Structure formats: structure tokens, C-alpha cells
Prior knowledge:
Layout: H1 7-20, E1 34-37, H2 50-56, E2 63-68, E3 71-75, E4 78-79, H3 84-101
Antiparallel strand pairs: 1-2, 2-3, 3-4
Amino acid sequence: MPANTGTGERRYLLKGGAVLAGGAARAPGKEADILLLRADALNVAPLNNVPGAVVTLMDRTNVDTVIVAGRIRKWRGALLDVDHPRLLADLEASRDHLFTTARVDRPLF
């Protein structure tokens, strides 16, 4: 695919991608979730094929902004409306429960 894809081709790719992902094509009155990906990170440098970089090189660290149902959930790499201390405590409690249930020693070092 050429690097400078035309507007019509982009529209086709987005619509086709939505349909392939099991969703419907975007239409008036429907909400769209939006991901903004950073393309200036070292893990995708030098960027020479955007679709290829998104599929094969990018990971969670490239996600800059996430908008879900019109609400910004992540902005400039930081999660919004998340109680980080509580989330960490919940994750640790879950780990401890799994280790206890499986009767696994949990030496962290």
C-alpha cells in the first residue's frame, strides 16, 4: 500500500477494518472509539510503512490517547479516572489469591 493513501482509500480501509473486526461501519449517530498512536517512538523508527508498523512493531507503549464513547480514558500516555493505589492493591490481592489457591510459594526474589 502506498505511504500517502488517499482519503477514499483511508475511508475504505477504516470501514473494512471495522467490518472485519466484527463491528459495523461508522455511520451518523453511531459512536466511535478512537486510539491515537505515537509514531515517533524508537520501537517504530525509522517509520516507513504505517500499516506495517501498527501491526508488527507497535505495542501498548505507543498508545497515546484513547477515547471511548466520547470520553477520554487515556491522555498523553496517562490513564485518567483510575485510582492507581487501589488498582495496584487489587492486582496484588489477586496474585496472592492465585498463589495461595495453587499452593505456590511466592518468593519475589
